[in-house]
Write a structure and sequence with these properties.
By secondary structure, the chain is of the alpha/beta class. It is built from 2 helices and 5 strands. The longest helix is centred in the C-terminal third of the chain and has 13 residues. It starts with a helix and ends in a 19-residue tail after the last strand.
Length: 127
């Protein structure tokens, strides 16, 4: 697995900021955040050595390099899941690659349900 991490991060180093970045894994609930990123480079997961491809419809399958409010970010636009048939090593590969690229802060989102039957589904529009 170590050689896969090195090969993936070596491929991506030319896009990463030398001062490091904040890592973001955009789950289903945060995919709109991509509109706030000033994207310098967007790379399909299929182009990155050893990266799995996302099979979930709403997950775009791109690694974004850019800035938000002047802060460098590396953002996963979609991710991989155990239920898609990937191993835990494959699922965590992008996080390990981000670490190699200088990420020390990682933000992860997901869409999660609740057990309280009185909760109601609502759409919240950001303005």
């Amino acid at each position: 697995m170590t050689s896969e991490i090195i090969q993936s991060s070596d491929f991506l180093k030319k896009f990463a900021s030398p001062q490091g970045a904040i890592g973001i894994i955009m789950g289903t609930g945060l995919h709109q955040l991509a509109k706030s990123i000033k994207i310098r480079e967007a790379i399909d997961y299929s182009k990155i050595p050893h990266f799995p491809t996302s099979t979930v419809e709403s997950h775009k399958g791109k690694l974004l390099f850019g800035t938000i409010e002047g802060k460098e970010v590396i953002a996963m636009q979609g991710r991989f899941h155990f239920y898609e048939g990937y191993s835990m090593q494959q699922i965590t590969l992008p996080v390990r690659v981000m670490k190699q690229l200088g990420v020390n802060t990682l933000l992860v989102s997901n869409a999660a349900g609740a057990l309280n039957p009185s909760y109601q589904k609502r759409r919240i529009d950001a303005h």
